[in-house]
């Protein structure tokens, strides 16, 4: 069986950043999948499920309500390894194209206070597994350490 493309990325050299994971054609349209890598794989602890779940709820809500990107947002959700998130957007896009959007998103998550959207038994299958404080912290850390000063090497996968 052939390895899927995401398993061919050197996860030893991969650092936090925004990467184009793949582009897929669906009819006449292109869907770009982004790897929003928040932690260094195999080098630092992964995020716990509660904060990942909270970031997912806040991120999906923010993106699907965004004035410019709502109609292009296909999916936002966690990686199984808990080192980041996948974002699927309609369009043939580059990592640089979404830097302002990611800055806005992670500042929103960093500063969010109050009830997490969808965090109730009626709306979510695991609503008790949330940690807003850690989600705020991790979003702030990602913004401060990566997004506020992002460099070209954090926008293209390492070879």
What's this model, at a glance?
Pfam families: LuxS. The protein is α+β, with helices and mostly antiparallel strands and 159 residues long.
The value of Rg in angstroms is: 15 Å
Percentage of helical residues? 25-40%
Q: What is the number of strand segments?
A: 4
Shape estimate? globular
Number of helices: 3
The share of residues in extended strands comes to 15-25%
Quaternary state of this entry equals single chain
Q: How would you spell out the order of helices and strands?
A: EEHEEHH
Tell me about the biggest sheet? 4 strands, antiparallel
- Averaged pLDDT: 96
Strand neighbour order, sheet with most strands: 1-2-4-3
Q: What structural class should be given to the helix and strand makeup? A: alpha+beta
Poorly predicted regions are none
Rounded to the nearest angstrom, the distance between the terminal CA atoms is: 23 Å
Walkthrough of the structure:
The protein has a 4-stranded antiparallel sheet. Helix 2 (99-111) runs antiparallel to helix 3. It is α+β, with helices and mostly antiparallel strands and 159 residues long. Strand 1 (17-26) and strand 2 (29-37) form a beta hairpin. The longest helix is centred in the middle third of the chain and has 16 residues, at 49-64. It is globular. It has helices spanning 49-64, 99-111, 132-145; strands at residues 17-26, 29-37, 73-78, 84-90. One of its GO terms (biological process) is quorum sensing. Fe cation binds at residues 53, 57, 124. Its EC number is 4.4.1.21.
């Amino acid at each position: 069986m052939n390895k899927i493309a995401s398993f061919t990325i050197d996860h030893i050299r991969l650092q936090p950043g925004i990467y184009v994971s793949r582009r897929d054609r669906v009819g006449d349209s292109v869907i770009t999948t982004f790897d929003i890598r928040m932690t260094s794989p195999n080098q630092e602890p992964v995020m716990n499920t509660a904060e990942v779940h909270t970031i997912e709820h806040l991120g999906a809500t923010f993106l699907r309500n965004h004035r410019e990107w709502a109609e292009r947002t296909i999916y936002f959700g966690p990686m199984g390894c808990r080192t980041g998130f996948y974002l699927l957007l309609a369009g043939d896009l580059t990592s640089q194209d979404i830097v302002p959007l990611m800055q806005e998103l992670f500042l929103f998550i960093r500063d969010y206070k109050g009830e997490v959207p969808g965090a109730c038994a009626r709306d979510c299958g695991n609503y008790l597994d949330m940690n807003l404080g850690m989600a705020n912290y991790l979003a702030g850390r990602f913004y401060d350490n990566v997004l506020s000063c992002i460099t070209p090497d954090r926008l293209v996968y390492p070879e």
